[in-house]
From TrEMBL:
<keyword id="KW-0472">Membrane</keyword>
<keyword id="KW-0812">Transmembrane</keyword>
<keyword id="KW-0677">Repeat</keyword>
<dbReference type="InterPro" id="IPR013098">
    <property type="entry name" value="Ig_I-set"/>
</dbReference>
<dbReference type="InterPro" id="IPR013783">
    <property type="entry name" value="Ig-like_fold"/>
</dbReference>
<dbReference type="InterPro" id="IPR051170">
    <property type="entry name" value="Neural/epithelial_adhesion"/>
</dbReference>
<keyword id="KW-1003">Cell membrane</keyword>
<feature type="domain" description="Ig-like">
    <location>
        <begin position="160"/>
        <end position="244"/>
    </location>
</feature>
<keyword id="KW-1015">Disulfide bond</keyword>
<keyword id="KW-0393">Immunoglobulin domain</keyword>
<dbReference type="InterPro" id="IPR003599">
    <property type="entry name" value="Ig_sub"/>
</dbReference>
<dbReference type="Pfam" id="PF13927">
    <property type="entry name" value="Ig_3"/>
</dbReference>
<keyword id="KW-1133">Transmembrane helix</keyword>
<dbReference type="InterPro" id="IPR036179">
    <property type="entry name" value="Ig-like_dom_sf"/>
</dbReference>
<dbReference type="InterPro" id="IPR003598">
    <property type="entry name" value="Ig_sub2"/>
</dbReference>
<dbReference type="GO" id="GO:0043005">
    <property type="term" value="C:neuron projection"/>
</dbReference>
<dbReference type="Pfam" id="PF07679">
    <property type="entry name" value="I-set"/>
</dbReference>
Length: 428
């Protein structure tokens, strides 16, 4: 791989820089500079002399931990070295082969990089206002011979952002055409994009009813009025906050009309209501006309026209007060928009007015000397005879008593007749 070779070249250059810059002061490499013979691809220096006492050399007490930070925040990389003595610590950006700091001095010209240390043991590299270009490997190294080092990775994550120029805006389309809604988002890691309806309704997609459609593109074949609404493009990648964009889809179609009851009946003096339901987009103009084609004006003592909107649906109601002979006939509800016009007819016919009658029933017997009487009212509906009703409790008791007494008298008379006949036979 090319990476080890590049790293070896970088370390070689770094050693040369240290040697040249500190040659007169016995600086970074000190007495060890004359022993450097070669730098292997793995970044370990090979000496051309005797090894130093390993126990007296600096050692890393812990690894340089990987750090994850959101873009725009500050990052801190820590390097802890024991037994440093006269050796020096340097921070290096591995992928760009940039020397960031040597001992107490910041070498890089990047103003966002700073250095701090504690007790000649802990060395901290500060990166302010982290940007995506800061993502990569950072090395903490000590100028032992061979060089000792530890690496840590700075991960820079970016919350999602929706690219407006590449994302669909509000759309108006004709019914039965194909529609494609697109949502482009950036971020690190790469965002996950999904579509759903703002009102929580299901989406008819690829012949199925779904709540969520995954992916940047929502493609709808033969769009219908049922697809009309606000759609949310939501992008997320685990880095808060997630982001969304509203896209409103409007579907145009000519008016359609339905009538619950095409035939209505009313009697003179009655109030009656006619109903009509329409669907249209753009929103239709709705009104009522008489049989002669005259437009009905609402607000008079005679007529009250009410229209209620629910999205692309509209409910029409015409109330006619105190129906007269002249009000019977046909009424038309009309709906029109820029794509077409439709109407429906409702016929109003006269029906007989309901009537009220009184029924009085008498039940009496001479033996009981008691009269049972009840009175009831029946309202005859206009569409047929009154229903059969059971008599009140009093009337039912009178009828039963009358039937019982009549039967008893019949048997008593028969008994007396037989007794009289037998008595006459005995006397003879």
């Amino acid at each position: 791989m090319a990476f080890p070779n590049k790293l070896a070249m970088f370390v070689r250059k770094l050693f040369l820089v240290f040697v040249v810059s500190t040659a007169h002061s016995g600086g970074y490499f000190g007495a060890y500079g004359r022993h450097v013979r070669n730098i292997e691809p793995n970044g370990i220096s090979v000496l051309n002399g005797a090894d130093s006492n390993q126990d007296s050399l600096p050692r890393f007490t812990e690894p340089v931990l990987n750090v994850t930070v959101t873009v725009g925040r500050d990052a801190l990389l820590a390097c802890v070295v024991d037994n440093l003595k006269g050796f020096k610590v340097a921070w290096v950006r591995v992928d760009t082969q940039t020397i960031l700091s040597i001992h107490h001095n910041v070498i890089t010209q990047n103003p966002r990089i700073s250095l701090s240390y504690n007790d000649h043991r802990s060395w901290y590299l500060h990166v302010k206002n982290v940007q995506e270009v800061d993502r990569g490997w950072y090395m903490c190294q000590v100028n032992t011979d061979p060089m000792r080092s530890r690496k840590g990775y700075l991960e820079v994550v970016v919350s999602p952002t929706i690219i407006d120029q590449e994302t669909s805006s509000d759309m108006v389309v004709l019914e039965s055409t194909n529609v494609s809604l697109t949502c482009k988002a950036t971020g690190y890691p790469e965002p996950y994009v999904m579509w759903r309806r703002e009102d929580g309704e299901i989406i008819r997609y690829n012949g199925e009813n779904v709540n969520v459609v995954d992916g940047e593109v929502l493609f709808i074949t033969k769009v219908s009025r049922l697809h009309m609404g606000v759609y949310l493009c939501i992008a997320s990648n685990g880095v808060p906050p997630s982001i969304s964009k509203r896209v409103q889809l409007k579907v145009q179609f000519p008016p359609m009309l339905s009538i619950p009851n095409q035939l209505e009946g009313a009697y003179i003096g009655q109030d009656v209501t006619l109903e009509c339901r329409t669907e249209a987009f753009p929103t239709s103009i709705n009104y009522w006309t008489t049989e002669r084609g005259d437009m009905i004006i609402s607000g008079s003592d005679k007529y009250e026209a009410v229209s209620t909107d629910n999205g692309y649906k509209k409910y029409m109601m015409l109330k006619i007060r105190k129906v007269s002979k002249n009000d019977f006939g046909s009424y038309k509800c009309v709906a029109k928009n820029s794509l077409g016009e439709t109407d429906g007819v409702i016929k109003l016919e006269e029906i007989p007015a309901p009537t009220t009658i009184k029924i009085i029933t008498h039940h009496s017997t001479s033996q009981i000397k008691k009269e049972y009487e009840y009175e009831s009212e029946y309202t005859l509906p206009s569409n047929g005879p009154p229903p059969i009703k059971e008599p009140p409790v009093g009337g039912s008791a009178g009828s039963n008593v009358f039937a019982t007494v009549s039967s008893l008298l019949l048997y008593v008379n028969l008994y007396l007749f037989v007794c009289s006949y037998l008595y006459k036979l005995v006397l003879r």
